[in-house]
Amino acid sequence: MTAPAHIAALYRHPVKGLTPESLDAAWLNAGSAFPGDRLFAVEIGPSGFDPEAPAHISKMRFAVLARIPALARVASRWDEATGDLTVRAPGAEPMTINLGQPDGDRGLETWLTEVLGEEATAPLKVLDGRGHRFMDDPKGAVSILNLSSLRDLSERIGRPLDPLRFRANIHVEGWDPWIENDVAGRSLRVGEAKLRSIKPIRRCVAVDVDPATGERDADLVADLVRLYGHAFCGLYLLVQETGEIAVNDPVEWME
Predict the structure, then answer these.
(1) By C-alpha distance, which of 177, 165, 168, 162 is closest to 145?
(2) What is the pLDDT of residues 77-105, one digit of tens each?
(3) 7, 61, 64, 137: least CB-packed within 10 angstroms?
């Protein structure tokens, strides 16, 4: 764990289940989630989410890759300054809506319903967390993917794997493979921010979906269990001290 490490890439996912968006830098605030990440979600049928009393809800109540692999074929881009979300999909007219506004949300619901067809098994509804984040795990404020672990998995199954399958916020280069499984409670300096590791990320069938094609073309959870005896790939963290992080910034264990 003494090898030099750095941030290789940064990503946010403004709408849960839709396109990862790369960033050059991000400002992390103590006690807060990764900026611009999982601010909105699209429920399939009544999810039970109450914006007046927001609480964690299973991802399977939302439009996510674990439930609808074809969702990967929807390309989206969010303009943080204006709130505009542009969506594109094969065979559909591109659309730009103002996300978080009633007319815009209804427009996205209609567009997605047409694009997903029979996969939309119940009415779709855009949910605005209003500060709540639609994380897969209630402790998942920030997520890290160790690229060395991913390469090790790729080599063992005999095929390259796109890191975007794992929908992490921070890609780290320079760690030993799988060290993230044994660091719960330890703190690390990431750029100017300080974070504390919480627990490894237990993976689900979402990682079986090719983010470029929307096809379920792997059985990575079974591969992880078969090869390593666990279903982990990644690390959840909490932000302890505020600061900016940027691509190529160092990532250093503090204790």
Answers:
(1) 168
(2) 999 999 999 999 999 999 999 999 999 99
(3) 137
